[in-house]
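CHAIN AND CONFORMATION:

***
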Amino acid sequence: MNNSKTGGKQQKEDLLAPTELNQPSKAPEKGNLSDAELRERLDLYSSVGENLDDRWTIQGMKERYLNDIKEREAKISKAVTHYAQGVSAGLPHAPYNAIQYSYDNEKQALRDVVWEEAKDYYRDKNSLSKEFGESKDLKANTIKPSFDKAKSDYEARDR
């Protein structure tokens, strides 16, 4: 029982109320994927591809992402060196935290683009609705005759 009182009455805990479940498989909102999460998700998407072309396409997206990250890191390290030289020379400069924040935002934007691209490709190629889309049109009266036919074919094979 809940011991809190509202208006002089005790509230009872509703035992029939649905419990909230944590849903770790829920896709994160845009902007929340870290580098490691993106790599893991790309590996997952490529591992469940139906054919090799799908797997190689997702792995290609991952390779392009990794190459872009390497190029950005190289540019950032040069920019940090130039920033330090400018500070030591006494040139006016922005706070380093603001610059680092802009670099982090650029990386996050790249991760968002790659994730959306991979997710869209995965959904187009591996959607279960393609497999089961036609089954929605089946009616009970069409399933029974096909079952009876399969059953009679099986019995005829045993004779």
User: Anything to note?
Assistant: Residues 52-125 form one domain. Helices lie at 35-47, 52-89, 96-126, 128-132, 140-158. Confidence is low (pLDDT under 50) at residues 1-5.
